[in-house]
Amino acid sequence: MRKIARRFFLMIFAAALSVALGMLIPRPIFSAAEAEGTDTTRRILVLTNPIHTDIAVSIDAFIREKFGFLEHAGVPAGHSDARWLIFGWGGRAFYLETPTWSELKPLPVLKALTLDRSVMHVDVAGDIAEPHPAVTGFDVSEAEFVRLIDFIADSFERGEGGPIVIAGAEYSSDDRFFEAKGYFNAFLGCNTWTARALREAGLRTGWWNPLPVTLAASLRLHN
Hints:
alpha+beta, six-stranded antiparallel β-sheet, two-stranded antiparallel sheet
């Protein structure tokens, strides 16, 4: 019994240490943006809830052209009140089958902890208030912004007609789910995707960020 307890304690300690080191060790070690002294011209937002993070980008002509397929899929990016597009990458079963906590089911949780196909969730929003506990804003250069947008666009799985919308999977009339590249698991999940995207935008994150709280802490620490 003592051996089992000791092993369990060591497993918990190793997991906690990995998460802490993943937050404290910066990635990349050196920021090219600091060396270049690039003017910041674009605002991006990281939206956070207890288990998931999204990236919001302001809507302009460039964004509407880059993601022109969204209007055809039913996301009203061209609406006069639309100010932000919100992108999130995640596990297919958990994302599609758990629109609210009250609808949590065992199978999607199991897939999220093991291996699942991924999807992209796209939503549209009006004005987003800053400051706000669930909103963190960053200013990035035009070149960094374009790299971020290219990374997001490349995360969509494409068929012969372009990105593949998942019929009947939306939460509301304004959002849609699309097939995405890659596989989801608890170690390489939605928050590690967000971290990769932010690094494309010239920001530094922790080396490994499986949780929103560790990603947020690493962003404060390294930027």
